[in-house]
Specification:
60s Ribosomal Protein L30, Chain: A, 26% strand, single chain, 16 strands, 10 helices, alpha+beta, 3 domains
């Protein structure tokens, strides 16, 4: 008896767009299927029964999916042994077995598409038994149906420097899709309608440009010009790494940006940077560097330095400094979002001799800036029930009211802490009742 081989095809997620239209033109909205994952099951000769080993594999594979509205395309094959009629029937049994097991797991039968190809589409030429065994399989592709609008334009359109390994990476509800930027610097990316996504535009030798988008059917997103900053001496960028108020803890919504900075530095081993910590403290002048507010800016820069060191970036390439409130983006912030943008770490390319020889700003009580009470935690929908148990009912009611308000206005509550949501609610109520 041949060994049954169970193998996940492309266990790293595959992300590509299968368009139901012939093309996705600028400003067109397309109802599309997004291929989010796939796997393959192989059989012994003449076999089609789902074994416990296969069931365990499928169970584990589907447990990793957290998307709603999934659709499954099942395609079964055989080798060339036996008659064509026999192999057609065998592939139909294989297809039926997988479909029926998916239904027992709660998959809607209307969301399952089946195709039995028998020996008509041999993927591998059958010169030996190994190649025959590869043809005895069922492929399962998992799709997410969604509506998209095309986001297109150019990167650094007036720059003649060649972009190497240039990509657009779309981060969408835990999914990651990557698209090439063409030689003429143009790109065309399908973006889901009505959902907040992040877009990273990256290329060797450039800082990643991080964008947040929420598009609707009428969004004008053709011929967009996007700029990325070259990693040359003196270049300075806002890495969009933001922090919890009064803490050195990075907001959950900034984790992707922190990872992007790491990958930028990993791809540019000769680049050294200063990590510049900032705070939100309007209408005050900090003279004393030992003031706790100033120390907070040092703590934020230090946290990012520790993160990069832990990931393998050499300490000789990193210099961390605090700047207090001397360089706020919004000197008089009017909204919680403006306050968040002031609480940041910026990155500047510096001489490597400076990074090696100058002292990092240091504080003794770094841990005290990390601790967060329940009210200071990031809003994370999945943790909402757990977090709010520790707050009083009135506070909970007001936080939930602000969350509902933000979501109703196409804003993302996960950019805020519970404390900031509560403050925003109070400000909104005050403006209603002056």
């Amino acid at each position: 008896m041949e060994t049954i081989i169970l193998k996940g095809l492309l266990m790293l997620r595959i992300f590509c767009l299968i368009l139901l239209t012939n093309a996705l033109y600028a400003q067109d909205v397309a109802d599309s299927l997004l291929l989010i994952d796939s796997f393959s099951i192989k059989y012994a000769s003449n076999q089609y029964v789902i074994t416990p080993e296969m069931e365990n594999f499928i169970d584990h594979f589907l447990d990793s999916q957290n998307e709603q509205g999934l659709e499954f395309h099942i395609t079964s094959y055989t080798d060339s042994d036996g008659s064509s009629a026999y192999n057609d029937a065998l592939s139909m049994r294989r297809c039926k077995g997988i479909a029926e097991y998916l239904i027992t797991l709660g998959v809607d039968s209307l969301k399952i598409k089946r195709e039995a190809l028998g020996e008509r589409t041999l993927v591998d030429t059958e010169i030996n038994e190994t190649q025959k065994a590869y043809n005895r399989r069922t492929d399962v592709k998992i799709f997410q149906r969604d509506r998209f609008i095309n986001f297109s334009g150019k990167v650094n359109g007036n720059d003649s420097t060649e972009l190497l390994n240039a990509k657009v990476v779309v981060l969408d509800n835990g999914l990651k899709r990557t698209y090439d930027i063409q030689d003429d610097r143009s790109f065309s990316v399908p973006v889901p309608i009505g959902r907040l996504i992040k877009m990273h535009i990256k290329s060797d030798g450039y800082f990643t440009n991080v964008m947040k988008l929420r598009l609707n059917e009428n969004s004008n997103v053709t011929h967009v010009e996007i700029k990325t900053e070259p990693m040359v001496l003196g270049a300075k960028v806002d890495a969009m790494i933001n922090f919890v108020g009064d803490k050195s803890r990075v907001l959950g919504s900034s984790i992707d940006e922190m990872e992007a900075l790491y990958f930028d530095l990993e791809r540019a081993p000769n680049v050294c940077v200063e990590l510049m910590g900032h705070i939100n403290l309007p209408k005050q002048k900090l003279e004393d560097r030992n003031n706790r507010h100033f120390e907070l800016s040092i703590a934020r820069a230090t946290e990012i330095r520790h993160f990069l060191l832990d990931r393998g970036i050499s300490e000789d390439r990193l210099l961390s400094r605090g700047y207090g409130n001397s360089q706020m983006i919004y000197p008089d912030p009017k909204t919680p979002l403006e306050q968040i943008k002031n609480r940041r770490v910026e990155v500047e390319v510096i001489e490597c001799d400076i990074a090696r020889n100058e002292e990092n700003d240091m504080i003794d009580n770094l841990e005290s800036f990390r601790m967060a009470s329940p009210i200071e935690r990031d809003f994370i929908k999945e943790n909402l029930e757990r977090d709010l148990k520790e707050l009083n009912p009135k506070v909970i009611k007001n936080i939930l009211a602000q969350v509902k308000y933000l979501e109703g206005n196409d804003e993302d509550p996960s950019a805020f802490t519970y404390k900031e949501l509560l403050q925003a609610y109070a400000m909104r109520m005050k403006s209603k009742n002056p």
